[in-house]
Write a structure and sequence with these properties.
195 residues; Four Helix Bundle (Hemerythrin (Met), subunit A); 2 strands; globular
Length: 195
């Protein structure tokens, strides 16, 4: 689809009045929660790299989890959020750059999927992915999100579309949702391995 062509989701969302600001169900809140989650995973990876007792399987599970979360997040942004943003704001350069950043991240995710912890450059690729993603998040939250807040978008409806699509993608990819994490016998939660 051409970048400036209206999508079916953006055309029905862009025409509605803005929703109440700051709701947990609005699109910006949902995307910011995703951002927080992946930043925490990248930070945990950095701690793992420094801990000589970290086993390779734990590192791989974390990397697979982060890559799955990023894949789902990027897809909902590309399918739903960016088209709506293109219809609502005038900053195409910012959106074009975001899509290029997604492509770079996807390339690293593809390379990591073919690797194992201990392979040459495994840690380096995930670390660089984290740096790319953190830069991307900073631009979205400081530049794009404020423009979207001022736009004539129904962020509640857009958030609902994003939430529904995320659930579909989780099911398609076999990724557990946050409330489907395994519970250990001691009552703590742990992530299921992503395939």
């Amino acid at each position: 689809m051409p970048r400036n062509a209206p999508s079916k989701s953006s055309s029905k969302t862009a025409s509605r009045r803005p929703s109440s600001k700051g709701s947990e169900d609005d699109a910006l809140h949902i995307l910011a929660d995703d951002h927080k989650k992946v930043i925490e995973l990248f930070d945990e990876f950095e701690r793992m790299k420094e801990d000589e007792e970290t086993d390779e399987e734990a590192k791989q599970i974390l990397v697979e989890t982060a890559c799955a979360e990023l894949t789902i997040h990027a897809q909902v942004e590309e399918e739903i959020f960016y088209p709506a943003a293109r219809d609502a704001i005038d900053d195409m350069d910012l959106l074009d750059e975001a899509e290029v950043e997604h492509a770079s991240a996807k390339q690293l995710i593809t390379e990591l999927a073919a690797m194992q912890p201990g392979d040459d450059l495994y840690d380096a690729k995930f670390t660089v992915l984290g740096e790319y993603v953190k830069h991307h998040i900073e631009e979205e939250e400081k530049e794009l999100f404020p423009k979207i807040k001022k736009a004539d978008l129904d962020l509640e409806e857009l958030g609902q579309e994003i939430s529904e699509r995320k659930l579909e993608l989780r099911e398609e990819l076999g990724v557990p949702s946050d409330d489907e994490d395994d519970e250990d016998p001691d009552g703590s939660t742990s992530k299921r391995r992503v395939h």
